[in-house]
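Sequence in, structure out. Go.
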Amino acid sequence: MQKLLSFFIWLGVGLLASVDLEAQTRLEAGPYIGVSWYNGDLNPNRMFASPEPAYGGLAKYVFNDRMALRLTLGAAGISGSYPQKELFLPENRSVPYSFDRTLLDMTTMLEISLFPYDHPVKRDAVFSPYMAFGLGSVFYKRYTEDHGNHDEKSSFVLSLPFGAGVKWKVTDWMSLGAEWILRKTFVDDLDLVGQNTAVYPSNPYGFEHTTFTHNNDWYSVVAVYAAFTIFSRSEQCRDGF
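Output:
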């Protein structure tokens, strides 16, 4: 996943360098719905494992036919359990463990279309794949240990969202899209919930050496959405220029 993140960063830099910054301001907003799952101690690398519902809304501030700034706010469910087939954790943990929680998910991302999309002159520019990357935040209850007492505290933590999708301009005022956005977090306790903190107060299965690039939890959202044009600034006639 680290290589995938690096790929998106460098691809985004390259695309930004080639974007035409001619203004085409427009505001779009709409709902999304899909599924989410997590990758961490209880699911190191499987995609679409233990999927949970994900839903929310998004808004896009469109700069031109290649670039938009987008905001999303929604909920993403994640879950996991142990023991399970082909998963062997340190210290021969034999105590059954499971979790199921809902994260409040917020992201701000730059969306870059690979093809011209909804161009003011090119009427056939109605479909494009795109990539998106930016910054996000996850809101959830974190469990802490203070002088032997276990407690919970609602907290915001940083995430790095990035991914790709496709979009289709159905009418002048409505677009449809489908996307897969991954979120890299900088914590290792998304899978730590409820009474299980009494057993593993800081990390469910003893992965204590968390670093910037390893042993942090990830989660993904695959969703479809509809975006409706709320505000559009008319283009001036250029008389052929």
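Check: The chain has a mean pLDDT of 79. Helices lie at 2-17.
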